[in-house]
Amino acid sequence: MNEPNKFEDIPGTYLFDRKRSREGYHLNMFCMSLMKPENREAFLADEKVYLDKFPMTNEQRQTVLERDWLGMIQMGGNIYYTSKLGATLGHSFQYLAGSMSGMAQEDYAEMMKAGGRPIEGNRSKSGGK
Amino acid sequence: MARLIAGLATSHVPAIGAAVDLGKTQNDYWKPLFDGYEPARKWLSEVNPDVVILVYNDHASAFSLEIIPTFAIGVADEFPPADEGWGPRPVPVVKGHAELAWHLSESLILDEFDITIVNEMPVDHGLTVPLSITCGEPDEWPFQVIPLAVNVIQYPPPTGKRCFDLGRSIREAIATYEEDLKVVIFGTGGMSHQLHGERAGVTNREWDAKFLDGLTRDPMGLTKIPFLEYVREAGAEGIEMVMWLIMRGALDDQVNEIYRHYHVPASNTSTGLIILENEGT
Fold first, then answer.
1. Which residues form the domain of A22?
2. Residues linked to residue A104 through DSSP beta bridges, in sequence order
3. Residue A78 is part of a domain; what is its CATH number?
């Protein structure tokens, strides 16, 4: 009944499946902790100390410290969680989306105003459609 | 008896809520979108429902990866706006309808939809933005709201068919509720959008138009769309549109399309709004 790996054929898309959910659990729960103002303050006061409370991998921790938004997603982060880190740092969804797709926020915003990223050419890696 | 008279579907983009909260709805960027909401506001104020069943997804606010209910219904008297990382939205507390919510829970479970019952549930932009879109900025929301949260974040979300069938069961449950109530159901989320990865920002105007057409005329056709097609054609986060099928399932087979509005973009998202009335209401 599962739909295995056909998703990997969709370019630039990271299905939040069981594998990513398990891999990213502690990274995502770190982001979730930023829902509370006192935790946001503690994180901003000393990021490394705060991050040590969460048993994520060093690579995941590094993506947070380096604001590597795409790297977080590639290591199991989910956008609805990583966007809480974004909010803590004063970033909008558009900023994050621009960063993940390798565009300046202004260029990304202009692309959206012009109708968004076209679906043509973005459906399939193998089919090239 | 309670009567379900209409359904409304709308996107629930957080930036739309921010535009309302920051007084930006009339600037060049937002005005075309908000102008399109005016007829929906007028319609809703004329319909003047007692209760809105609001189908939405929680975006890691009330729930997290700790617990992932596929379907969850809020049975409390009140639901506070959630702090999503920048403080709660400055909108009224959402008043529930506990009696009807409990009746729905019992009916759905006895009808074999094993829904999660929730007493404590802050509600995030997924629920409050549709209220802002349809009601503006009142001191209190003009109706009671029953939140129905659907998991569309962790794979797998419920199928479109399962959502549609849940709507069918909601319709039956409302029809057996004795109090004389006027009920409207909202489906929210969508339309085509992707918020993550290198493909962020993808939109698909043609697919969205077909979905809106199908919602009115061929909802059974829409129930056959597989998860993979939503992701490929409507963007990974476009899967939210299965929640529109809960709304549609709750309505009669034949409906009248009252209004439709479509606009790209709101921040990262293609936005749509549609109003469907049961015939004879």
1. 18-90
2. none
3. 1.10.700.10
User: B85: pLDDT confidence band, cut at 50, 70 and 90?
Assistant: confident
Check if B159 contacts A (Cβ < 8 Å). Answer: no
Q: Is A42 on the interface with B (CB under 8 A)?
A: no
CB B252 within 8 A of CB B193: no
Sheet containing strand B255-266, strands side by side = B116-118, B71-74, B144-150, B51-56, B182-188, B3-10, B269-278, B255-266
Backbone angles phi, psi at A104, to 5 degrees: -65, 150
What is this structure's pTM? 0.97
Q: Does B134 touch chain A (CB under 8 A)?
A: no
Tokens of B48: 């003047």
Predicted local confidence at residue B87, as pLDDT = 84
**How far A19 CA lies from chain B's nearest CA (Å)?**
10
Query: Contact B64/A70, CB-based, under 8 Å?
Result: no
The pLDDT of residue A113 is 97
Domains of chain B: 3-278 (3.40.830.10)
Chain A: give the shortest CA distance to residue B204, in Å: 6
User: CA A80 to CA A89: how far, in whole Å?
Assistant: 15
- The residues of B assigned a catalytic role are 125, 193
The pLDDT value recorded for residue A3 is 55
A83 touching B, CB under 8 A?
Answer: yes
Residue A110 domain flag? no
What is the nearest CA distance from A81 to chain B, expressed in angstroms? 7
CB contact under 8 Å between B198 and A102, yes or no, is yes
ipTM of this predicted structure: 0.95
Block mean pLDDT (10 aa), chain A, length 129: 72 96 98 94 98 98 98 98 95 95 96 97 85
- The total domain count for chain A is 1
Round the CA-based radius of gyration of chain B to a whole number and report it. Answer: 17
Q: For residues A60 and A82, what is the distance between their CA atoms, to the nearest angstrom?
A: 12
